[in-house]
Structures are given as structure tokens and as C-alpha cells.
Amino acid sequence: MQSSALVQYLPLVLIFVVFYFLLIRPQQRRQRERNSLLQSLQTGDHVVTIGGMHGNITAIDNSTVRLRIAGDTEVTFERSAINAVRKD
Predict the structure, then answer these.
(1) Which pLDDT belongs to residue 87?
(2) How distant, in Å, are the alpha carbons of 9, 16, 20 from that of 58?
(3) What is the pLDDT of residue 5?
(4) In what order do the strands lie in the sheet with 82-86?
(5) How many CA atoms lie within 13 A of 88 on its CB side?
(6) From CA 83, how far away is CA 55, in angstroms rounded?
(7) SS3 for 41?
(8) For residues 34 and 41, what is the distance between their CA atoms, to the nearest angstrom?
(9) Which fold has domain 43-88?
């Protein structure tokens, strides 16, 4: 009787384990990497926003980033709008 209950719940447990390793854990890793990227932003970095705008950081606040996008044109973005730091 007890072994049949174990056999009955084993597929559910295995499905949860597979979901954890294939979906949840990689998403947590990507989120940690993104948070690390946003915390490491510095003045002068060349960045790309989630909208595809390229610019250089001229000022950083706790929640905002000022980007110089052309000549004297500067725009303010939320820090979370930064998608990537370009190394070129």
C-alpha cells in the first residue's frame, strides 16, 4: 500500500525536479547576471538600452542613468532600461 503511493507521486516529483533544473534555475542565474551588470555600470561605459539606443553614460543615480547619445544630446533612462555594456 505504501509503495503504491510512492510510485503514484514519483512522476510528479520528477516533473518538478526537471522543471527546476531546466526553467527555474537558469532564470535565476540570468537574473543574478543582469543585477550584477546593472550594479557594475560606471560613468563612461558605452551601453545599449532595451530599446536599442546606444550611448555613453555621463551620470549615474540609484535608479536613473544619463546617456549622451549624440553631440550634446543627453537623455535620462531608468537604470533597468540598460540591456548591455559594449566593449568596443
Answers:
(1) 87
(2) 57, 46, 40
(3) 81
(4) 73-78, 64-70, 54-60, 46-49, 82-86
(5) 2
(6) 12
(7) coil
(8) 11
(9) SH3 type barrels. (2.30.30)
Please provide residue 66's backbone torsions phi and psi, each rounded to the nearest 5 degrees: -100, 130
Q: Which residue has the cell 525536479?
A: 17
Give CA–CA dist 61/88, Å, rounded: 24
Residue type, 33: E
Higher confidence at residue 6 or residue 19? 19
CA 26 to chain centre: 12
Per-residue pLDDT reduced to its tens digit, 19-51: 999 999 999 999 999 999 999 999 999 999 999
> What pTM value is reported for the model?
0.74
Q: Which triple of cell numbers denotes residue 83? A: 540591456
Residue 56, helix vs strand vs coil: strand
